[in-house]
């Protein structure tokens, strides 16, 4: 019998928690087919436990044609056979619970697969009971209804001959959007939420949740966001959904790119918010796909501080640098060549000790880098392949396109997790579904476990600190603005006790003088052997210090 985790008795458990995101396809292959699976995850629960994290978020493994790697769900209550069975899923939940680790699933309810039974019915005729589960418009002058575009390129409308209509899809044409104006859609989704809650799921990450409401005028727009992101009226839809989660005592984190901090109160206010937390993307330029440039530290400070101060006393932040859609942090923010471990640990300290719930994406704790694929055939992500084809048609050279993909492709985060230095990294004894990162012989769990100063062991220390010190849980965040493009310095403070977090996020030395109010300084953690001996510091490139202090 599985250990019972009572979320009702501890409704705010997620605040004193660290999450670990698993991308099941790339975690561990247990059945020798080159694809990660649920039994592979079960095998590695001791490793996840060793990190000190207390909940996992799993990217989708529901039944799916896998056009968009599982974010196109064809049955929310069935498991994709490549990952295992429903019994495997229940065993996995049970074993995580036995280890005091809660389980959060990824719920994709902005859209379904075009192979979901709802859509297969909906496209048959305008009188079909499921027709109104999706968004349909008649042709205008023999063409698409308006100028709305898909986030994966091209028109957001695809023609359906049987009904002489176009259906709307914000993502791929195989991912038709659900019509949340129809109350029956909410009723159907509520049943799915209840069904999984009964089977022990502790929460959900809500994919693309800021897109549920579409602009009901269906007119051309100048700014595409006006058609489909945080559209006025979304509040009623989210409030309805929120009752389903609260009724089941589920933790929720919404993917809500484009929701400004000024409007986030409605989303995450402690008592009345729709969700416990949201993922915002101001610090990772989420929508600037395939643009390549160095991150500006001053902009990073501003973006993250806006959310820290904006939600203080109102709601709770979700802290992250990586996920399955983003490049590797050490390649995007850091220096992944000459100072990989140093920059990975500096970045870790910078974001991890802010106020909120930190998330680690699989491989981030090793300082995994972007892949270095040299041919388009090595890519698996449909958006990357689409981008390559479109840019080629515009006359761009394959080399230039591949350079951009190496920086920003979603496949950067999806290469198999390296457990050891063997040819397939201990991920599988079969050819993996996507190539291993070429540097996995040096960056892997076995190697980093043996090195006391590794990125992996640094993350373990951060997790322990975050979960055991009340100041790092509840203390107020205060930026110390250095007005430069190198340093990110802030404090977390309760009463007169606090922590000073000093990070140099650059390839050059930086000077910082610890302000006089901070006294009785004690170094708690650093990523360098050089210890501070005076208040006037010269920080080596990518140097990070955590100091405890008493205030005068």
UniProtKB/TrEMBL annotation:
Question: Which Pfam families does this chain map to?
Answer: Alpha-amylase
UniProt similarity note: Belongs to the glycosyl hydrolase 13 family.
Q: Which NCBIfam families match?
A: PRK10933.1 (NF008183)
Name of the protein in question: Alpha amylase, catalytic domain protein
* The keyword Hydrolase is annotated on this UniProt entry: yes
Keywords of the record, alphabetical order, are: Glycosidase, Hydrolase
Q: Which residues form the Glycosyl hydrolase family 13 catalytic domain?
A: 21-414
Q: Which domain of life is it from?
A: Bacteria
A GO molecular-function annotation? alpha-amylase activity
Question: Which biological process annotations from GO are given for this protein?
Answer: oligosaccharide catabolic process
